[in-house]
Design brief:
Elements lengths: L6 E3 L8 H7 L4 E6 L7 H14 L4 E4 L1 E3 L2 E2 L11 H10 L1 H21 L4 E2 L23 H18 L4 E5 L15 E2 L3 H5 L4 H5 L6 E4 L3 E2 L11 H11 L5 E6 L11 H11 L3 E4 L3 H13 L19 H5 L2 H12 L8
Parallel strand pairs: 1-2, 1-12, 2-3, 3-6, 7-9, 8-10, 9-11, 11-12
Antiparallel strand pairs: 4-5
Helix pairs in contact: 3-4, 3-5, 4-5, 4-12, 9-10
């Protein structure tokens, strides 16, 4: 199977439009990320994914299905609790927590793979409890050691299901209150402070993650550029210091936190020059078209690392409906009332 292009984009609706069909056939496009607007029912979504796969089987197909409030797939899919709930169980009852974290990771992953996708952009490695409005209970814990204790079995469960894990948002989004979707946050802490706290999960799990997504945050004591556009962060620290050798995805270049780098051609080039293997452009079709043109004009060579992100196992929904483990996990989550009204 050929290597996909370096751009991941989104679709506007419940089916592939003629214009989108032509766009997806461009070699510069390497993946599709699905959002809630693409999903009316499980059956409709499976049909949409099949349409995309038929166009170009090499495309990487992804979604944000972390658990809690970040679950694009809901009707017909299992409810995964917020990661903070799992982290709190781990903190109070490590034996039960390890079991639930591993099984929650497995459950999330098998249902996504059974739907024809390759991976979810998960898990969150950020450290937070209620400081950052966009992270909050998406984080396993605000204590790095407890977060790692919960993250490791969650990643193992994903891997067992056949899904590669993507750690986000490097080097940590939990230290700022602002939402990088809406502005470019500034974190003034020193590199030593970050290494002693937020970076610990990325450092300890660097060999267990297949991919990392950096934050659109300026860590001003380290570099004036947001982490996703910074060679210091992606090459010197992530690649060299932490010895991470997997895929680096940009966060969505349409986020306001990325606008500091300029327009879409400038953002695309800056992210790739810093070390990203694939860039995301979502919710802005003209921006995606500019990114395609930029990649074409620059004759960008696609990273072979992207093959790491393909699903490594196949699952079918008929298989899952009768799967004993899946049923037991769903019951365990419900019995322990791990879901929260705040999700």
């Amino acid at each position: 199977m050929s290597t996909p292009g370096a751009l991941m984009l989104d679709l506007e609706g419940l089916q592939v439009s003629p214009d989108e069909r032509e766009l997806l056939l461009q070699s510069e496009v390497g993946g599709v990320i699905f959002f809630a607007r693409n999903i009316a029912s499980k059956e409709q979504f499976l049909t949409l994914v099949t349409q995309v796969r038929a166009l170009r089987p090499e495309l990487l197909l992804a979604i944000d299905q972390e658990g809690g409030r970040v679950q694009r797939l809901r009707e017909g899919y299992s409810t995964i609790p917020p990661m903070q709930v799992l982290g709190d169980v781990m903190a109070s009852n490590p034996e039960l927590g390890e079991y639930l974290c591993r099984d929650a990771g497995w459950l999330m992953a098998v249902e996504i793979i059974a739907s024809g996708l390759d991976f979810s952009f998960a898990p969150v490695l950020d450290l937070d409890r209620d400081s950052c409005e966009v992270i909050s209970n998406r984080a396993f814990h605000d204590n790095p050691r407890l977060a790692i204790q919960a993250l490791r079995p969650f990643i193992q469960g994903m891997n067992e299901a056949g899904m590669a894990a993507t750690g986000k948002h490097f080097p940590g989004h939990g230290g700022v209150r602002e939402d990088s979707h809406l502005e470019t946050p500034q974190d003034t802490r020193s590199l030593n402070d970050l290494l002693a706290h937020d970076i610990i999960p990325f450092a300890e799990l660097s060999q267990e993650l297949a991919a990392v997504m950096p934050a659109h945050i300026v860590y001003s004591a380290v570099d004036k550029k947001p982490a996703g556009f910074s060679q210091i962060w992606l090459q010197d620290i992530l690649r060299q210091r932490l010895r991470f050798d997997g895929v680096i995805f940009s966060d969505d270049l349409s986020m306001k936190g990325a606008d500091i780098e300029g327009g879409y051609p400038e953002k695309t080039r800056a992210a790739l020059a810093a070390g990203c293997d694939m860039v995301l452009v979502c919710n802005n079709r003209s921006g995606a078209l500019e990114a395609v043109e930029t990649l074409r004009n620059d004759k960008h060579k696609t990273s072979e690392k992207l093959s790491l992100m393909r699903a490594q196992r196949s699952w079918s929904w008929s298989e899952l409906e009768s799967n004993t483990r899946r049923g037991e996990i769903i019951a365990a989550i419900a019995d322990r009332a791990l879901t929260s009204p705040s999700v």
